[in-house]
Amino acid sequence: MNITVVGTGYVGLVAGACFAEMGNSVTCVDTNVARIDELRAARVPFHEPGLLELVASNVQKRRLRFEISAAPATHECNLYFIAVGTPPNEDGSADVRHVLEAARELGQQMRHDSIVVTKSTVPVGTTEKVQAVIDQQVLRRGAAIRCVAVSNPEFLREGNAVNDFMRPDRIIVGTDSDEARDAMRRLYLPFMRKTEQLLFMNARAAELTKYVANALLATKISFMNEIANVCERIGVDVEQVRHGIGSDERIGHSFLRAGCGYGGSCLPKDVKALIRTAQDAGIEPEILCAVESRNRSQKRRLFEKITTRFGRNLQGHRFGVWGLSFKPDTDDMREAPSLTLLHEMLDAGAQVHAFDPAAMGTARRMLPDEWLANRQLCLCDQYGALKGADALVLVTEWKLFCYPDFQVMKETMKRHVIFDGRNQFEPAHVRALGFEYFGIGR
């Protein structure tokens, strides 16, 4: 199939590369000229395991190409994907201007009867707006072209996106068109192990399903974080509770690990957007508001533990921070708990030396220049971050941190204190090695 993907961000690039891997001819479009130049040279602008190899292979085989406009692809393409960003507005609602602008451009340029698939995460009713925008542009041109707009939300986990796309647990398509159903079934058949993995529904249900899925995952995280705080107060190890309830097949083990809060590009903004959707419909979503509130509070838990141990004034104290990305296997720091922690520690006068296996470049771009300029924050290698440190603060559960050299840590650190924001270590083990240990709910 000939496919055009508008947007070369996280979702668009993964989708384009995976479609090409299955033998399709794919054109990825982005107005960012520098990014297109990078991609044409088979350089991926963000960290995602396996994606660089996939892009390079399909560029070499000429199944994947990159353009700054959709126009070159419109002569041979009749299946378009919109995968542009939908950042949150100030009120928490999703900003769909880029989605509608992409639809407007496609309506001006498409040459054949087409299917336009919204892959971006969008509020309920957006696919209908995409349809209306395209129809308006086609009518204005006087073209005898018929277009069907379809919703096809993504369910990719950063750090595992290629595998999630190539081996999905479900594919959701929102459309009432038999023609669109047939085309999407043909497209996704090579990705499916079982045909029942492909779920058809109307577009509004598909759009809402994406938000509800992320909101429920966020609810599990925030619920367990709240239970972790109860566990600390009453002398219970939250890990034992987690194993106990996770064994119930109705609940399961996933998203039950207590920690220092969730972040990233999906859960925070999708919870906000669903809250706004509910409020616009006249419903006060008390559970979702509590989820968001709990997550804000949870991002402060490590700082609270640090100040309980060292006092509110952290002048003269140095801390080593391991992990800046919001989760392992990504360089994404959007809404990361590390950002809240760094702001609070530096405001309290601490000196911080930080390390992340993938997000050092992201940190240099995102963090205030004055932090790095005045050396209050230094970006170091893993054990260099611990030199002279009063404590290690583990924020992201990278595999690299599972089994560190504790002897080197003891020789490098000034004081032997660990704040474990992801319950990465076994408390009894590190305490037996001579460390003070502070976990979450342990």
Describe this structure as you would to a colleague.
The protein is of the alpha/beta class. It has 3 domains: about 1-200, Rossmann fold (3-Layer(aba) Sandwich), CATH 3.40.50; about 210-295, N-(1-d-carboxylethyl)-l-norvaline Dehydrogenase, domain 2 (Orthogonal Bundle), CATH 1.10.1040; about 300-440, Rossmann fold (3-Layer(aba) Sandwich). The protein has helices spanning about 10-20, 35-40, 50-60, 95-110, 125-140, 160-165, 180-190, 205-235, 240-245, 265-280, 285-300, 300-310, 335-345, 360-365, 370-375, 405-410, 425-430; strands at about 1-5, 25-30, 65, 80, 115-120, 145-150, 170-175, 200, 320, 350-355, 375-380, 390-395, 415-420, 435-440. Strands 3-2-1-4-5-6 form a 6-stranded parallel sheet, with helices on both faces. A 6-stranded parallel sheet has the order 11-10-9-12-13-14. A two-stranded parallel sheet has the order 7-8. Helix 17 links the parallel strand 13 (about 415-420) and strand 14 (about 435-440). Helix 1 (about 10-20) crosses helix 3 (about 50-60) and helix 4 packs parallel to helix 5. The mean pLDDT is about 95.
